[in-house]
Amino acid sequence: MTYQFEVCALASLKLDGLWLGGPASMAFAAAEKAIPCAMQLLGSKIMLAGSDVHRERAKEYLSFVQQSRKDIEEVPGLRGGGRLSVTDADMREDVLPVLLPEEAARCLSLERIAEIQRATRTFLVFDTGGGSVMARGMRRLLVCGGTEVRRAEAAARARERTVQGNRHLVNSLQESEVENMPPSDPWAKLLTIPWPKNINEWGRLQRTLWSGHPKLKKGWIRCMSSSQRQEYYVRVADGISTFDPNEALA
Question: Which domain of life does the protein's organism represent (predicted)?
Fold first, then answer.
C-alpha cells in the first residue's frame, strides 16, 4: 500500500479549522485512528498522510462531524444530525448504521461517545437518516471506520449505553410518579402488617407507608406512635426523635 502526504486548504474542504481544533478535537482524534490516517492542522490547512483511499475518507469523516453539528440547537447528550445526510450509509463497507430511540440516544453524551471511539478505534456520528424513512422518535448513529468486528463492538457498546440510560429514565419517571401521587395513609397501611419492631424495620417501610409525603432531611425517617396514632421523626445517627415536622422536613 502506498502512503503519501497531502496538504489541503480547509476552505477547499469547507472545514472550520477553529472548530476542528476546539470543540471537535475529540472527533478529529477519533477519525485519525479509525481510518487510519495521520492528520495535522496547520493554520488554515490540514496535512494528511496515508493511502489515497484513507486520505479521502479522512476528509469525508471530518466533513461528517462538522455537517452533523450544523444548524441544530444544542441538545444535552446528542451529537447532532444537523445537515448530515449520508444517503449511501447502508451500502458502504466502512459504515454500520445503528437505529436508536431518541430518548435513549440522549444518553450518548460526547464523553461516552469518546469512550466508545477510543475503546474500539471507530468514529461515531449522528445523521438525519440519509433520506430513509425512520420511525418517529428514532435517531441514526453511524459507526464508521475500523474493521467490521470493531464497528460491531462499537454498536453493541452504544446500545448498551442506551439500555442503561433507558433504565435511568424509567427509574426517574417512576420516582416522579411516586412524588406526584396523593399522600398515602400510613396508619391504614400499618393495620395490615405486623407492627415494626425497630428502627431498621421502620427504615425499610418508608416508601411503603409514606408514599407521596414530603421529603425529610437526609438521615431522618418517619415512625408512628401506636399510642397516640401520630407520626414522629427519628434522626438515625443519634436516635433523637421529635413530633415537630419542622425539625425533620427538608
Answer: Eukaryota
- What is the rounded CA–CA span in Å between residue 128 and residue 31? 20
β-sheet bridge partners, residue 58: none
Task: Kindly list the strands in the beta sheet with 220-225, ordered across the sheet, starting from the edge strand earlier in the chain.
Answer: 220-225, 230-235, 241-242
| Alpha carbon distances (Å) from 56 to 37, 50, 52, 241 | 10, 9, 6, 72
Q: Whole-prediction pTM value?
A: 0.61
The three three-digit cell numbers of residue 165, written as one number: 440510560
**Average pLDDT for consecutive 10-residue bins of the chain (250 residues)?**
84 82 78 90 90 92 85 51 85 91 77 90 90 78 92 88 53 47 80 86 87 87 87 87 88
- Which position has the grid cell 502526504? 5
Name 147's Cβ contacts closer than 8 Å, sequence gap at least 6.
Answer: none
Q: Tell me the domains of the chain and their CATH numbers.
A: 4-177 (no CATH), 186-248 (2.20.70.10)
Q: Is 209 within 8 Å of 195 (Cβ atoms)?
A: no
Cell numbers that stand for 91 in this block? 451500502
Residues 6+ apart with CB under 8 A from 36: 50, 54, 121
Give the list of residues 6+ apart from residue 52 with CB closer than 8 angstroms, or none.
Answer: 2, 4
DSSP SS3 for 26: helix
Burial class from Cβ neighbours inside 10 Å (0-12, 13-18, 19+) for residue 57 reads buried
Helix (H) or strand (E) run with residue 25 in it:
helix 25-34
Amino acid occupying residue 152: A
**Among 211, 214, 204, CA closest to 236:** 204
